[in-house]
């Protein structure tokens, strides 16, 4: 592997290519090998229907995983919030790099905040989680389902992008993606997690490889050096919660774990689709390792189920 370039698979969107390029350059530096980007077209990039209709955000992942298993690429880079919680046979998350801003960001016309938007304002999002929490905070807003890349969505906001359709008053996007694309100047308000808990894994990347390649060699060593313990622990807790709830990536569920001086803390919310009902829980553990993180997520999921989470939204459990 040291003599031929390591092939790094990525979706073709500007955001995906930007974040994958950063990963590729870092792995090359850590492992002392050449890298080459391989663009893979996924169902989520081709099909413009609502994510809930075409299988959730897992549609962004399947083609990349097929490329890994077939040998067309050696590493695949995913937005971790897009990754299904079930293990993929033969594949391993070799590294979770240091997580960046977890928050959602409001990009509104005239620099308005969520509290300043007038009643009836049209807010675009493709995420049921964001839509439900927006409705919980501001039931008087009109939430519009949208798809498209970051620039396409920003162009929907009146006066934000010259020449755009401008048919919305605001959109909500992940702060991490806006930062990676250099679009933070479009943000009118970073939404506090007390108002909008992020998706499990938001702000983190997953660097996936074949399980055999994670065991030894230059790529294995580079991935191990790139892995950030705190980031891996927090996303492990959040994803364990999602897995135990048997909820897909598009369910109206937010979760955010933090490493604390005492160990690990986790906050989660389950919403009804219309935002009229929410269940919010907070818990912690002193066991700051992967087993402790997983147990924390499962325990909180059990608490939410006992409190009636399955009655608020569609959960397989």
What does this molecule look like?
The chain has 317 residues and is of the alpha/beta class. Helix content is 31%, strand content 23%. It is built from ten helices and 13 strands. It has helices at residues 14-31, 43-46, 62-70, 128-137, 150-154, 175-180, 218-226, 229-245, 290-306, 309-312; strands spanning 6-10, 35-39, 75-79, 91-95, 104-108, 122-125, 142-145, 170-174, 189-191, 205-210, 253-260, 263-271, 278-285. The chain has a five-stranded mixed beta sheet with strand order 2-1-3-10-4, sandwiched between helices. β12 (263-271) and β13 (278-285) form a beta hairpin. It is globular and about 60 Å long. It starts with 5 loop residues before the first strand and ends in a 5-residue tail after the last helix.
What is the fold's blueprint, element by element?
Layout: E1 6-10, H1 14-31, E2 35-39, H2 43-46, H3 62-70, E3 75-79, E4 91-95, E5 104-108, E6 122-125, H4 128-137, E7 142-145, H5 150-154, E8 170-174, H6 175-180, E9 189-191, E10 205-210, H7 218-226, H8 229-245, E11 253-260, E12 263-271, E13 278-285, H9 290-306, H10 309-312
Parallel strand pairs: 1-2, 1-3, 6-7, 6-8
Antiparallel strand pairs: 3-10, 4-10, 5-8, 5-9, 11-12, 12-13
Key attributes of the depicted protein:
alpha/beta; five-stranded mixed β-sheet; Porphobilinogen_deaminase_C_sf
How would you sum up this structure in a few lines?
It is an enzyme of class 2 (transferase). The protein is an alpha/beta fold. Strands 2-1-3-10-4 form a five-stranded mixed beta sheet, with helices on both faces.
């Amino acid at each position: 592997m040291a003599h031929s370039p390591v092939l790094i698979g990525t979706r073709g969107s500007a955001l995906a290519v930007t974040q994958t390029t950063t990963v590729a350059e870092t792995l090359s530096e850590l492992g002392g090998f050449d890298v080459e980007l391989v663009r893979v077209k996924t169902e989520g990039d081709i099909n413009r229907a609502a994510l809930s209709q075409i299988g959730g955000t897992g549609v962004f992942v399947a083609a990349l995983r097929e490329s890994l298993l077939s040998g067309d690429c050696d590493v695949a880079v995913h937005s971790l919030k897009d990754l299904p919680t079930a293990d993929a046979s033969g594949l391993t998350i070799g590294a979770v790099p240091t997580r960046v801003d977890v928050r959602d960001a409001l990009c509104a016309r005239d620099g308005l905040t969520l509290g300043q938007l007038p009643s009836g304002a049209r807010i675009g999002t493709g995420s049921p989680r964001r839509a439900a929490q927006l409705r919980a905070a501001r039931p008087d807003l009109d939430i519009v389902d949208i798809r498209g890349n970051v620039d396409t969505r920003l162009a929907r906001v009146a006066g934000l992008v010259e020449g755009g359709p401008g048919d919305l008053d605001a959109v909500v996007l992940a702060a991490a993606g806006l930062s990676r694309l250099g679009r933070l100047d479009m943000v009118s308000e970073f939404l506090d997690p007390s108002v909008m808990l992020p998706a499990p894994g938001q702000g983190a990347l997953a660097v996936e490889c074949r399980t055999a390649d994670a065991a030894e060699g230059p790529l294995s060593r580079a991935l191990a050096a790139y892995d950030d313990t705190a980031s891996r622990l927090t996303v492990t807790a959040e994803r364990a919660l999602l897995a135990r709830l048997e909820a897909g990536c598009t369910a109206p569920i937010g979760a955010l774990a933090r490493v604390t001086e005492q160990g690990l803390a986790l906050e989660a919310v389950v919403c009804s689709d219309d935002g009229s009902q929410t269940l919010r829980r907070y818990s912690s553990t002193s066991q700051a390792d992967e087993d402790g993180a997983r147990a924390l997520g499962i325990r909180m999921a059990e608490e939410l189920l006992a409190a009636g989470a399955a009655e608020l939204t569609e959960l397989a459990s």
